[in-house]
Structures are given as C-alpha cells and as structure tokens.
Amino acid sequence: MAAIKAAARKDGFARRKAAHAVDPGTGAARLSELLAGFRGVPLAGYMAIRTEIDPGPAMEEACAHGLVGVPVITGAGEPLLFARWEPDTVMTEGTFGALVPADCDYFEPEILIVPLVAFDLHGGRLGYGGGFYDRTLEQLRARRATLAVGFAYGAQQAGSLPLESTDQPLDLIVTEQDVIDLRG
C-alpha cells in the first residue's frame, strides 16, 4: 500500500504544481463564499506551503466573524493542535516549514480547511503521509460534529485513491472552479 500511495502522491504533486503555475490564487473567493454560510463557527485553515492553494484571503475574511486558527504539529504520531490566528499575528517557522503563531492560544475548531495532494469524489483525501489530519479529525469527530473541507485545485482530482480504514473522509471540497458537497 505504501508504494501505491507514493505513486498517487507523486502524480498529485505534479498535477498540483502545474495548476498552481497557471492559477496561484483565485480559489480563495469560492472558499469565502462557502464559509459565509458558517459565520461565527470556529474554524481552522492553514498557512500554504510550496504549491498548496492558499486559503489566506478567506481566513482573513472569516476573522471578522469568528475564531480562526492554524494547525500546529506537536510531534510525530500526534493529532494537530490549533492556535488562534489573525492577519497581524506574529508568525514563526514551524515543523515542515509551515508558519505558526509565535505565541499559541489553542482552541478546538468545528470546521477544518484541509490541504491535500489529491482528492476523489467519494471524499477520499491523500495528504503528505504523516496522518496528522486523519488522527485529528478522528479525535474531533469523536467529541462533536466536525466539518472537513478539502481545499484544492480542480486538477488535483483523481478517479480513485488508495485509502485505508484510518483515512478520514472530506465533507466538502472547494476548488477554484466548484464546491463539491459530499455530505449526501
């Protein structure tokens, strides 16, 4: 399974890189439109790295209506924690080069905007392979309803993905072109 996932990741990274080169930033407007329906619900986005589609503008807009945070990796095999973030938050480099607040004020979000390498139309998500979002979503969903919103370029869609029983499904996928609701 590891080799199959590695091949799928390689393909997903290539498609994401090509999409990012053509359109590095229009998807945030569609994400903002979706988040407008959840004003005031605590949410966590992420600080884009490499060729990830950037949720920053949508996160900035959401800050005017409620609590917004970013993920903090505390260790291998651990779920993510989420630190409060605002546009003027002093940031420092965290694990894997993603920016995190210099002073962390942690909270539990009810909506997670999730970065990814590839997705399918069944809610499958392929990430970087560390399992951080899967562990985190499993933990949060055990306590309360938690919405997982995959944010990606449309080109990152795969026909199917090699998934395992521990992989947590996405509820929605937002691309620069569309909002895909998988909640049934």
Structure classification: alpha/beta
Rounded mean pLDDT score: 94
Q: Span between N and C termini? A: 28 Å
The assigned CATH architecture is 3-Layer(aba) Sandwich
CATH class: Alpha Beta
Task: Give the spatial strand order of the biggest sheet.
Answer: 6-3-2-1-7-10-11-12
Share of helical residues: 25-40%
What would you report as the Rg, rounded to the nearest angstrom?
15 Å
Poorly predicted runs: none
Total number of helices: 4
CATH-defined superfamily: NagB/RpiA/CoA transferase-like
Q: If you had to describe this structure to a student in words, what would you say it looks like?
A:
This protein is α/β, with parallel strands linked by helices. The protein has a single domain, classed as NagB/RpiA/CoA transferase-like (Rossmann fold). The protein has four helices and twelve strands. The chain has helices at 2-22, 27-35, 56-63, 132-143, and strands at 43-44, 68-72, 81-84, 91-93, 99-101, 106-107, 111-114, 118-119, 125-126, 147-151, 172-174, 179-181. A hairpin with a 4-residue loop joins strand 11 (172-174) and strand 12 (179-181). The longest helix is centred in the first third of the chain and has 21 residues, at 2-22. It is globular. The mean pLDDT is 94.
